[in-house]
Design brief:
alpha+beta; 30% helix; 218 residues; globular; 6 helices; seven-stranded antiparallel sheet; NADH Oxidase; two-stranded antiparallel ribbon
């Protein structure tokens, strides 16, 4: 769907997901994530950048597993510590995973994807046309019920900071393993919240598209 079509659909409240184009299992177990390999950190920082041209090639289960663990997985089993920080360890950001086969939420323990809706919501994650084609769109959602101890006026600020840290982990993984990604905030928040079936205490913060770079025609 082209950007202009999305904007017009959004204006009249008709920007909606499509039917999933494959079976939508209730749970997608993920392989054990790799915790070694890739570029040295400083090299990955040198290669880190945004890209907006994506191949439609799906990510393998292993790559998806590695990516989600790098984004916000558990890296300290004893304490449940995560790969990205959160204020007062609130861990208030949920990572939604929009695939052609459905919308899932990432459950860091037991490291799996749990079905939210059997729809292809990729086009609803942003007004840009490339989000429809890329194999993966991540959506970062603040669940403010997890941060009752934080003063109300600071909750969204802290959640946004956490989402930024998660997004940067994705950038570094992408740079290290030959993927391309871009973080985005241009979307219809109401339409996306509806597609993700969010409650009143949940708020969309950012979206991030991930995939392989498109191959240039020779």
């Amino acid at each position: 769907m082209h950007t202009l079509t999305k904007l017009l659909s959004s204006a009249v409240g008709h920007l909606k997901p499509e039917r999933a184009n494959a079976d939508s299992p209730a749970v997608l177990p993920l392989p054990v994530p790799m915790r070694d390999g890739g570029m040295p950190l400083l090299q990955a920082l040198a290669e880190r950048k945004s890209g907006r041209s994506f191949s439609a090639e799906p990510l393998s289960a292993q790559v998806l597993s590695n990516l989600l663990w790098a984004a916000f997985g558990i890296n300290r089993a004893r304490t449940g510590g995560r790969t990205a920080p959160s204020a007062l360890n609130g861990q208030e950001v949920d990572v939604y995973v929009s695939l052609a086969s459905g919308v899932y939420i990432y459950a860091c323990e037991p490291h799996e994807l749990q079905l939210v809706a059997a729809v292809d919501a990729r086009r609803v994650t942003g007004f840009q046309d490339f989000v429809d084609r890329a194999p993966l769109d991540l959506v970062y959602v603040a669940d403010l019920s997890h941060v009752d101890a934080v003063p109300h006026e600071q909750r969204m600020l802290f959640a946004a900071a956490s989402a930024g840290a998660i997004a940067e982990n994705v950038y570094l993984y992408a740079a290290s393993f030959g993927l391309t990604t871009v973080v985005r905030a241009w979307f219809d928040r109401s339409a996306l919240a509806a597609a993700l079936q969010l409650g009143g205490h949940e708020h969309v913060l950012l979206a991030q598209t991930v995939g392989y770079p498109a191959v240039e025609a020779s």
